[in-house]
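Much of what follows relies on a compact textual record of a protein's fold. A record is reproduced here so that you can trace the correspondence yourselves:
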Amino acid sequence: MRRSALVLLLIALSAQTWAQTGTIRIVTEPWQPFMGPELPGGGFLPELVTAIFADSGLEVSIEFAPWARALSMATSGAEDGLLGAFRTAERERLFLYPEAFGIVRTRLYARADSEGSIGTLGELEGRAVGVVRGAAHGREFDAAGSFIRIEVEDHETLVRMLLLGRCDVIAGPADVIEYLLRTRFRDEAEGVRATSPVLEENAVYLAFSRAAPGAEKLRRLFDDGLARIVADGTFAELARRHGISW
């Protein structure tokens, strides 16, 4: 009981940080090419969020963690926001959503030597499908129960598992999977093929935790800042610099 009380106290104190110190605490996963600790400035989305809040006088602190852990941290209110979130009915109850950054397309990927068509949810029946734990892929895919889900911690592990034959198919954002194939797995990239058509299209957000104080104010500041950097060309310049096509 004492441990639970201490955890709740720490969450309450950390959630008040932005109002007290002027620093917004945001958590996310490494999600290249959009963001990652090894990318310049943390990547496109962290630099974008910093620019959005620049006129408000607030600084942005980004922490990287596996997605399931990042989701839990933001849900509890230990962090102010969850970066790179999709919008789902369940998350609507946990987060406030401002305007979206852009659109990410979720696709299915199979080994190049696999047989048969795997382009629709119906064709996944009975197959082992790899996904990142806690990630959303789209309403229909997430609700489907006709295939076997194998959960892993991150997208790099997801690609590796497919190459090793530990699942039949993986589902993930095309930009992220194809970035990994061009970089971390370039020697094995020919062994993976994208199936078609695109499975889902999802808007990408910085979602603010309803459990963190001041979430509504942060949402308003975000929307005002996003409109400003779109109008003055900062958004387009950051996208160009990072090679993002939004």
User: Anything to note?
Assistant: The chain has a mean pLDDT of 91.
